[in-house]
Design a protein that fits this description.
Elements lengths: L22 E5 L14 E4 L1 H6 L4 E4 L6 H18 L5 H10 L4 H13 L27 E2 L29 H14 L5 E2 L11 E2 L12 E5 L3 H7 L14 H12 L11 E2 L4 H5 L4 E10 L2 E11 L2 E2 L11 E4 L4 E5 L4 E5 L4 E4 L12 H4 L10 H4 L3 E3 L2 H9 L10 E10 L4 E11 L10 H30 L13 H19 L7 H27 L10 E5 L2 E5 L1 H15 L1 H8 L2
Parallel strand pairs: 8-11
Antiparallel strand pairs: 1-2, 1-3, 4-10, 5-6, 7-17, 9-10, 12-15, 12-16, 13-14, 17-18, 19-20
Helix pairs in contact: 2-4, 2-5, 12-13, 12-14, 12-15, 13-14, 15-16
């Protein structure tokens, strides 16, 4: 470790991310449950403490949910993977996970790695600042306000709703804040036109166009989360062969290329479009060329000006990207005639996949079909081969293979994060975040819980449709048109919101079911009873708006047939739909 005292950019003090307390973390409260109401104390620590004391820490505490996957991917996960390597197989991964903490030899390897690479993590190093290009500048020496880094701050066309700050208001970022938003920008930056800088041969007229969003902005991020930071790190490091020799984190790649070039650093303004060489390269992808400009103020070192230019472009999103689920598009098979006999054969259509994005306003449990799509084997069945489907993330897929080796009733959580961009992805419209409990046994497609959860989610959607149909029937009886699905809030949306805590309790409760059919059935019966009460509560609100004229109703001719809409008919249809969805509840009530 280098101990000499040096000055950073602009004569400011150096700020080493390994040692300086720049990341707020929450300690354990003794329960080791991530959902415990008795939250542990929050303190600021550096990367070294997080890694070496990960078994005593619960989680990161971030300014915006999208910062968490950025910090994990840009720093914590690649350090663990580069220092310790990947567990060779599921058995070794399971042994590490069950240990609950890094073994003494692993802790020594981590500590040695951090000491060896200590000089590469200085935020304000004058020669090789972390995640930046030293000396980055424009032809005219222009800079922009530090709000350019902050997703929630007003800058340019990106003006968040109800923002209390304008672009003209200077934003002073502490070194800790600047570091968090730096890695966030590499992962989530908008696709707006970027500043052209000296040394970028592809810049024209002082700007660079065609920039995509940061790599995470093209995904619906899915991250498994455990009881401790140690568990979370392991849950996000898949087992497998060691990384390729040229698969390096950006700090090691820069150092190696710098040695080849005979310089201290090889970070330059030039960028390229290329595929990732592996997980380490992918996780630490430098999608922008950035320079933080610190200055000394009465309050201490602050970053008020920055330069954000075009960076490397990922082409394409690799199929082994571990932090997203996938949509599988299967084009219909085409037929062709072969040979003199004109025999008709079916030509196999290739399966294409694309990352699945999260839908704003849609709870995570409503996408369980994609999260639980662990069986991605191909099939010869024609109906399946032509139907679009899903593939779960590589990490959840690996957990499904190891579920029987994991601690019983382990409280696995899954965090879903994403950003919705607008105006050609040049502005941020919305940030998506949700966190749900996910029973490990649900990842077994042959298990009881798997089918039970998917059935419950389908029931919730069908109940919402039933309430919407009730509303539509009553509006037709009154001479109005139904509420369009894409305009205004329909009563089904209100019901889904009311069912949200019920579904989450079901997810948490099914952890302990195992293969006990009776216990699973009791849980589903309780779910149907609560869902039925919630549905009737919303339906009663719809009925309360019915005018007296709805008792007599109205007749409508359509396609040569006459339909009569009245209150009594709407209620009868609604009851029938409710019984068709909640079959257990209906059977129990009829048996009374």
């Amino acid at each position: 470790m280098r101990l000499e005292v040096r000055k950073g950019l602009g004569g400011t003090e150096l700020f080493n991310l390994l040692d300086e307390p720049w990341l707020p973390v929450r300690g354990l409260d003794g329960s080791r449950e991530p959902s415990s109401p008795n939250l542990g104390a929050v303190e600021d620590v550096g990367l070294r403490r997080i890694l070496l004391e990960s078994d005593r820490l619960q989680d990161l505490v971030v300014d915006l949910p999208t910062q968490k996957p950025a910090i994990l991917r840009q720093l914590l996960l690649p350090i663990v993977l580069h220092a310790l390597g990947r567990p060779a197989d599921p058995a070794r991964w399971t042994a590490m996970f069950r240990a609950g903490a890094f073994a003494p030899d692993q802790r020594r390897k981590l500590a040695d790695y951090l000491d060896e690479h200590h000089h590469l993590f200085d935020l304000f190093d004058p020669v090789d600042p972390f995640g930046q290009v030293a000396g980055l500048c424009t032809a005219k020496g222009e800079t922009k306000g530090s709000a350019l880094l902050v997703a929630t701050a007003a800058t340019g066309n990106n003006v968040p709703l109800f923002s209390s700050r304008t672009e003209g208001d200077p934003l002073e970022l502490t070194p800790a804040e600047a570091a968090r938003w730096l890695v966030h920008t590499h992962c989530w930056d908008t696709a707006a036109i970027k500043t052209g800088v000296v040394g970028d041969p592809q810049a024209k007229a002082g700007k660079t166009t065609g920039n995509p969003t940061g790599p995470l902005g093209q995904l619906g991020v899915v991250m498994p989360v455990g009881r401790t930071m140690y568990d979370t790190l392991l849950l996000n490091v898949p087992s497998g062969p060691p990384p390729l020799s040229d698969d390096l984190p950006q700090w090691s790649r820069r150092a190696r290329e710098g040695r080849i070039e005979g310089s201290l650093s090889c970070a330059t303004p030039a960028w390229q479009t290329r595929p990732a060489r592996g997980l380490l390269d992918l996780w630490t992808w430098q999608s922008r060329r950035i320079r933080l400009i610190p200055e000394e103020t009465p309050a201490g070192t602050r970053v008020t000006r920055v330069i954000v230019a075009a960076g490397d472009r990922l082409a394409p999103t690799p199929a082994d990207e571990p932090h997203t689920t996938w949509i599988r598009d299967r084009p219909a098979s085409r037929t062709k005639k072969t040979g003199k006999t004109g025999t008709t054969v079916k030509a196999a259509a290739p399966t294409s996949e694309r990352p699945r994005r999260h839908q704003p306003g849609r709870a995570a449990w409503r996408g369980l079909e994609a999260l639980l799509a662990v069986d991605s084997a191909t099939t010869d069945d024609e109906a399946t081969a032509t139907r679009a489907g899903f593939r779960t993330s590589a990490l959840l897929g690996a957990l499904s293979d190891m579920a029987d080796r994991m601690p019983e009733a382990y409280p696995l959580q899954v965090e879903l994060t994403g950003i919705t961009y607008g105006n050609q992805s040049a502005v941020i419209e919305d940030v998506f975040f949700d966190r749900i409990p996910l029973p490990l046994i649900a990842l077994d497609p042959d298990g009881i819980v798997y089918g039970s959860l998917l059935a419950a989610v389908e029931q919730a959607e069908r109940l919402a449709a039933a309430v919407n149909n009730l509303s539509a029937d009553l509006r037709r009886a009154g001479g109005s048109e139904p509420i369009p699905w894409d305009k205004g809030q329909r009563p089904g949306d209100t019901l889904l919101h009311a069912l949200d805590p019920v579904v989450r309790r079901l997810l948490a409760g099914l952890r302990t079911v195992g293969e006990d059919f009776d216990q699973s059935e009791r849980g589903l019966e309780a779910w149907e009873e609560k869902a039925g009460r919630a549905t009737w509560k919303v339906a009663e609100q719809v009925f309360s708006t019915a005018a007296p004229a709805l008792f007599t109703g109205r007749s409508v001719s359509k396609d040569g047939k006459e339909y009569t809409f009245r209150l009594s008919t709407a209620e009868t249809n609604f009851r029938d739909r409710l019984d068709a969805v909640l079959t257990r509840r209906a059977a129990r009530r009829k048996g009374r």
